[in-house]
């Protein structure tokens, strides 16, 4: 190569590298930045359809935003100024009105509503979707059952725009259950085209395609890394959302999710450890919204079927030996609701979760342990889910240290996330740290799953007690019959029993936090703990 | 040459069969229960049993193995439960991402380490020799995810000169039309300079992380092998004949010192593929390593098996390439084969 040629090629290379360097948001995209939302989270959806097998939580978010339900919840402002869904107020979504009778509810559908492909939405689609939810099995069927929605015969097409649900029993949870994620309305004709003999409900198709009429549709998807939504401009079931495009990127490293929001590149950052949220809050550069998770409790559970935890005094001793305040400060960084510290003798509330009266009192714990016949303590194993290790690990170490002081020698057993549910199902672990939250925010719902003698998987302590069952069943019946006095009496009754016999020790009510830029407004806390883009605005 | 390739490929078949059997047994020996995991939080025992039947994991191991091998013969690696897509599709889209990163990291590393090693060998005991030793030791001692996070912290968070660690492309660019799956190459084919630059910028930090990690073995091996060659008689003869130092070092010494360096490169490349797993996590890189780790956490058998098998095939191909390269560098090797 000649010298002159070489110099020429050098300057050409220089010119090439002088191409405009795009910043994360280049000026040409300033317009679209206004209408585009960049969200970063830890996990990506594995299925767009909540009816599918093993759909994960991010998948719920896709279902929620891409499918409409007949009705949804209104909004309320909480005492701290943050916005939340309103448990008690239902507002129209796909149905413009409904008529609730003792034995049925009749919905009038919007006449102009369309699916993403332009097909009008009819009562036929609603019935097909509900039939699908109660038939496919697994989580959707289970969730429908929670609201006494069990059989396809319950769902009746009256005419094209009128749809009726017949009740098989009076249940206060039926209406709330019609507003959770599962009873979305699916484009039945479109899905039927893709159904096969092996897969009559087209679950394979809806796994990677959205076949609904919700406010957003999935435009681009790269498994595990990126999902791009586009607004459905023909959406009729509510005010047209302000955000035109949502780009949802998966960023596995929590440190990077924090860096992205602090640098101003991401609009909303989800799933960070409490420590990061607490620090971001203190720094004040971005807005951090924290809400208590409704009907959710982090707890220590004890297996009441086996000694030594079959002895109520041992359980009470453990409850007096938990370092509640330390857990609150050192593990949760204050971002949780205390479930301890009620004044002894104060009347119980009808709300749930509510604090109990146990405090950290090692002398009393030791005394109870002696009374129970274990003056020198005993050895046991405390198990936890490594999938939630950020909270569980320090928590269990604090508990281990504290129980050691009253002579209970605890060894810690870390169980990988994949095995946790399998281990829970066996119901053999003596002592566990775990978390439960119910979508439907009612005390009797929580107790039905966690304390009832039917011994569901969430009754991790295998607690069975006839009196407890009677009160839970009575509270459910009273709720359905609108008998407030009987309802209150029974709720207070089962809460008291749960606290006195402590098969599980409530530690804290966890929180859900999201960090967002200060120009983002309209964030709303939802029972499903995922984002609803419809209300979000960017200025 | 063709004979060599055929012979080596035939030799690889037993090891591949071994890999298939071992990964199958290992994934089954994992303590997790995929059915319980994917049945969701609210599953009853019956629901889990239903899923177990649907996944076919209620069958005896030998039946499962037969089905797995049958699928494999048809090129079907099964479905990933955690991402919901066929494993073959996942590997096809993710492997180029990992390969692009690893190859670039290795190239950067070679470009720095080989000259550094040669210089250190020609000036043993000099300040540069010591600097080279310190640099490489530090690089190999730091865990890759740590180096990655430090680079992100300084160049993105503090200085703001690196792009956000958001994977292969900035959010406002669409990937170039797929030809090879390598964004750098595909964007050039599509003559899209902007996308080329954007993907290059995303690559710089993760590739640098891998390069820092792999400097040490390459630089040390180059130095050692150069020292040995420089001390040999033919180099002394060349020098005595009055050849310029450049010709002596590059043409005579380096060519002869390359053989052990190439062997090291093969090894470095394979452990870079391993180190990739962590780098991909830090930089949200949609590669094959992070995919396999997530699958492992969820006891998702098919992707783990697919991943190990792909890796095994890659190792076989890599070793074959290195053997061929030997022949090109050193004619004696060809005769022995």
In short:
Chain A has 18 helices and 20 strands.
What does this structure look like?
The complex is a heterodimer of chains A (539) and B (337). By secondary structure, chain A is of the alpha+beta class. Chain A is 34% helix and 22% strand. Chain A has helices at 3-17, 30-35, 57-66, 123-135, 139-145, 174-177, 188-194, 203-208, 254-262, 274-283, 312-320, 324-331, 362-371, 389-404, 417-426, 443-450, 466-480, 484-501, and strands spanning 36-41, 71-77, 83-92, 95-100, 104-109, 155-159, 162-166, 216-222, 226-231, 245-250, 268-269, 287-292, 296-302, 336-338, 379-385, 409-415, 431-437, 504-516, 520-521, 537-538. In chain A, the strands form 4 sheets. In chain A, strands 1, 8, 9, 10, 11, 12, 13, 14, 15, 16, 17 and 18 form a 12-stranded mixed β-sheet that branches. In chain A, a hairpin with a 2-residue loop joins strand 6 and strand 7 (162-166). Chain A is globular, with a radius of gyration of 26 Å. The termini of chain A are far apart. Chain B is mainly α and 337 residues long. In chain B, 77% of the residues lie in helices and 0% in strands. Chain B has helices spanning 2-29, 34-38, 45-55, 61-73, 87-122, 127-141, 144-158, 183-189, 193-230, 233-240, 245-282, 288-297, 301-329, 331-336. In chain B, helix 12 packs antiparallel against helix 13. The model of chain B has no long low-confidence stretch (mean pLDDT 83). The chains are: A alpha+beta (539), B mainly alpha (337). At the A-B interface, helix 5, strand 10, helix 9 and helix 15 of A face helix 2, helix 3, helix 7, helix 9 and helix 12 of B.
SSE inventory with pairings:
The complex is a heterodimer of chains A (539) and B (337).
Chain A: H1 3-17, H2 30-35, E1 36-41, H3 57-66, E2 71-77, E3 83-92, E4 95-100, E5 104-109, H4 123-135, H5 139-145, E6 155-159, E7 162-166, H6 174-177, H7 188-194, H8 203-208, E8 216-222, E9 226-231, E10 245-250, H9 254-262, E11 268-269, H10 274-283, E12 287-292, E13 296-302, H11 312-320, H12 324-331, E14 336-338, H13 362-371, E15 379-385, H14 389-404, E16 409-415, H15 417-426, E17 431-437, H16 443-450, H17 466-480, H18 484-501, E18 504-516, E19 520-521, E20 537-538
Parallel strand pairs in A: 1-10, 1-11, 15-16, 15-17
Antiparallel strand pairs in A: 2-3, 4-5, 5-7, 6-7, 8-9, 9-10, 11-18, 12-18, 13-17, 13-18, 14-18, 19-20
Chain B: H1 2-29, H2 34-38, H3 45-55, H4 61-73, H5 87-122, H6 127-141, H7 144-158, H8 183-189, H9 193-230, H10 233-240, H11 245-282, H12 288-297, H13 301-329, H14 331-336
Helix pairs in contact in B: 1-13, 5-6, 5-9, 5-11, 6-9, 7-9, 7-11, 8-9, 9-11, 10-11, 11-12, 11-13, 12-13
